[in-house]
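Q: Please design a sequence for this.
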């Protein structure tokens, strides 16, 4: 999406004297220019404005303009894509692990709450088909983080995650009353791709993540790297998971240790034993490869 479509300069002119402004006020600004603007398109614009350092979230639904000199104007060739991400997952050995529907649904709710800071999720995770849950997202570098969050919330229960990339037949992501649509009621190649990716994992107990897109080179690279990631992550302890997720949030061993009430050296040791540096480097590289193919 070009900066012209985002109307960055117009946003600065409109909100320059506002200490803060709301999600609704920004939407009204766009609707004055584009009365037929779809909610799905608007959510994507908000995501791009945050990524480009134009607006900064102060709290949920409230934003502040960033310094114009620090704004990262988007490339002119960036456009609104027809391809989306669908993540379809299920629980491994749910019967053996005695996973109840109450436990399962509570985990899905917890996952959506944990993902509040993830900007690329369009429709949050919804449960269906027994022990399956599914979400729709824009193609973005946040994918590896979403995958890791899914595994963390369900730990120690292991899950399989099938990821599809492709078009959605109906782009109506909102119902007539503006409530979110249910991803399980939607159709399109992206859902078939996600299902195909998930099915490929059914007989591979040690592999938990699979991607299916129209780009064979991307599929091969992504899935190979995640096989290596799975070999490490499958052995993480609860303390390692806790330390890694906290470090990824605060970006500091000292701050992480302080929040857990342990020594910095102990916190660092938990991350080091989990080979976090390797995992993070792998996630970053996969995010880069994904955006090279689609963005």
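A: Design:
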């Amino acid at each position: 999406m070009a900066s012209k479509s985002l109307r960055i300069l117009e946003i600065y002119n409109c909100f320059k004297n506002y200490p803060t402004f709301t999600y609704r006020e920004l939407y009204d600004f766009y609707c004055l220019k584009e009365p037929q603007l779809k909610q799905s398109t608007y959510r994507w614009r908000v995501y791009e404005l945050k990524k480009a350092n134009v607006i900064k979230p102060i709290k949920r639904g409230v934003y502040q303009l960033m310094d114009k000199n620090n704004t990262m104007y988007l490339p002119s060739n960036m456009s609104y894509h027809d391809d989306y991400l669908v993540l379809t997952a299920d629980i491994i050995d749910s019967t053996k692990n005695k996973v109840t529907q109450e436990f399962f649904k509570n985990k899905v709710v917890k996952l959506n709450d944990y993902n509040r800071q993830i900007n690329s999720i369009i429709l949050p995770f919804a449960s269906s088909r027994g022990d399956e849950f599914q979400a729709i997202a824009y193609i973005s570098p946040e994918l590896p983080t979403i995958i890791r969050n899914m595994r963390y919330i369900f730990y120690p229960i292991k899950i399989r995650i099938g990821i599809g990339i492709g078009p959605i037949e109906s782009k109506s992501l909102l119902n007539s009353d503006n409530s979110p649509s249910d991803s399980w009621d939607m159709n399109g190649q992206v859902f078939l791709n996600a299902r195909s990716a998930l099915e490929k994992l059914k007989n591979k107990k040690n592999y938990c993540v699979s991607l299916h897109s129209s780009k064979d080179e991307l599929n091969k690279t992504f899935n190979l790297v995640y096989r290596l990631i799975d070999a490490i992550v499958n052995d993480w302890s609860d303390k390692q998971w806790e330390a890694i997720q906290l470090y990824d949030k605060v970006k500091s061993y000292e701050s992480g240790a302080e929040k857990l009430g342990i020594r910095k050296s102990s916190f660092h040791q938990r991350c080091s034993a989990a080979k976090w540096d390797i995992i993070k480097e792998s996630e970053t590289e996969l995010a880069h490869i994904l955006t090279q193919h689609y963005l």
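Q: Thanks. Anything notable?
A: The longest strand covers residues 83-91. The chain has three domains: 3-70, 83-235, 238-273.
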